[in-house]
Amino acid sequence: MARKMGAGAMTELATITDECVSFIEYRQAGATISENDYETIDYHLRRSRSQSKWLPELLREIDRLARLAAGWDSYGADPPSPDMILAARKLIEHLTESYLGLPRPTVVTATRSGSIQFEWGSDHDRYFELECVSPETAEYLFSERGLRLEIEGSTQFKTEQIDKVIGFILRASRRI
Amino acid sequence: MSDVLPENADRLSDDEIVYRRVPPEPPFHTPKDWLTTANFDLNSRQNELGLSVYCASVKSAQEVLMSPEAIPNSFIVSASVEEIRQLKNGKGEPLHLDVIVADDGGKNPGHAEIRGPIQGRLSRASRKALRDLFARRRIDF
After folding, report:
1. Nearest C-alpha in B relative to A81
2. How far is Cα A111 from Cα B21, in angstroms, rounded to an integer?
3. Which strands, in side-by-side order, build the sheet including A149-156?
4. Are A118 and B36 in contact (CB under 8 A)?
């Protein structure tokens, strides 16, 4: 089936790549593809490959956390709220879409107030934590002992502030 | 002493050791045996004022571990009150944490709370400092 790629095809492309339809299969199907579309497809395929490594497993982990009962820590912790589960999924998906090859969080855990927290950094020298505190907001702490550096802050999910968060993740994961 | 402690707060002595129970890491916690800062958070929805701990001079680690509300396979971590009071953030600034008796008029013997300088809140830096401190002394049976 011939398919014409052009303006407005971005959403369709994302769906197609998510379903793992390869570039070659696409051409065999007789698609008319421009140079720009090649780049777009390549981008989505790379994104898809990057995410496939650990994101599905992490999303399943978040879903399992959703099943924690009240008092799961024996000190009266709240179970994760559906809003925060959704927020955590959205946040991690947005981060992986914003930076190809984002390091996998070292820890994903429920918090005592019913939210979800991600942590990066497997030693105590560099550390970054990111906790969803509302459907669109997360709070964070970055710490680097060697530099006597500790930064607390908050970020909206879909703003340029997220670049700063990605910087902290890469630093804590020793990528930079 | 913190400004937000109750006037009649019964502060623990520096040489007291306190225990905190930590639930077993579920399989989705990675890596295993990782103590997370989330274990040292206050439940803001329930307006908790302090982080629950138990005094070693009143309850043994085993008693804390075997209490009815404990989750099976939990473990115990400990720290001295002096160490908690001396905690600093990553920049070397004091966190002004304190530990007070919170035994509910004797109904909950040995119970105490770690309090921060802001009522009902432990900063992220405080939680991390507590995690790093308690992580050093895990009690295995």
Report:
1. B45
2. 15
3. A107-110, A116-120, A126-134, A137-144, A149-156
4. no
Tell me if chain B has a CB within 8 Å of the CB of A111.
yes
CB atoms closer than 10 angstroms to residue A36: 11
Give this complex's ipTM.
0.88
State both tokens at A98. Answer: 């914003």
Q: Give the distance from residue A32's alpha carbon to the nearest chain B alpha carbon, in angstroms.
A: 45
Mean pLDDT, chain B, as a whole number? 89
* Vertex A54 angle, CA A52 and A55, to 5°: 75
Residue A110 identity: A
Please tell me if residue A82 touches chain B, with a CB cutoff of 8 Å.
no
Query: Cβ separation of B44 and A143 shorter than 8 Å?
Result: no
Over the stretch A63-122, which tens digit does the pLDDT of each residue have? 999 999 999 999 999 999 999 999 999 999 999 988 888 999 989 999 999 999 999 986
Number of helices and strands in chain A (H, E): 6, 5
**Separation CA B46–CA A21 (nearest Å):** 49
Å between B88 CA and nearest CA of chain A: 11
Is residue A174 very low, low, confident or very high in pLDDT (cuts 50, 70, 90)? confident
Q: Highest-confidence range of A21-25, A54-58, B51-55, by mean pLDDT?
A: B51-55
